[in-house]
């Protein structure tokens, strides 16, 4: 799983936290350094620096009335079926080989 440069910097920071906390720095069995973890952290740092070095060119969202927000929430469809969600995800971001 890689981080794409279009993602917001805070996602990089969250990903970095999970990479750091979820993987040991030294492999317990062999006592060797976990270079895969170091590679993931370095890749995330490069992406974070890239994202922070660019200006955000998007316009802020226009304010919505309370009625518009309520109508949106009333008509919001929630998909809680894991297979449908996985299918939608794979359609948006196909697995790379």
Please provide a brief summary of the model.
The protein is mostly helical.
Task: Name the shape in a single word.
Answer: extended
Secondary-structure element string = HHHH
Largest sheet: none
Global mean pLDDT: 80
**Helicity, as a percent range:** 40-55%
Number of strands: 0
For the terminal residues, how far apart are their CA atoms? 12 Å
The low-pLDDT segments are 1-5
Structural class: mainly alpha
Number of helices: 4
Bin the strand percentage.
Answer: under 5%
From the alpha carbons, calculate the radius of gyration and give it in angstroms: 19 Å
Q: Tally the structural domains.
A: 1
GO molecular function, one term: guanyl-nucleotide exchange factor activity
């Amino acid at each position: 799983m890689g981080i794409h440069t279009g993602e917001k910097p805070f996602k990089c920071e969250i990903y970095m936290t999970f990479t750091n906390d979820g993987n040991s720095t030294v492999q317990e069995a062999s006592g060797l350094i976990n270079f895969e973890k170091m590679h993931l952290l370095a890749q995330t740092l490069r992406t974070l620096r890239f994202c922070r070095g660019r200006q955000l060119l998007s316009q802020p969202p226009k304010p919505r009335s309370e009625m518009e927000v309520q109508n949106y929430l009333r008509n919001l469809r929630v998909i809680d079926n894991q297979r449908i969600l996985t299918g939608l995800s794979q359609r948006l971001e196909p697995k790379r080989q």
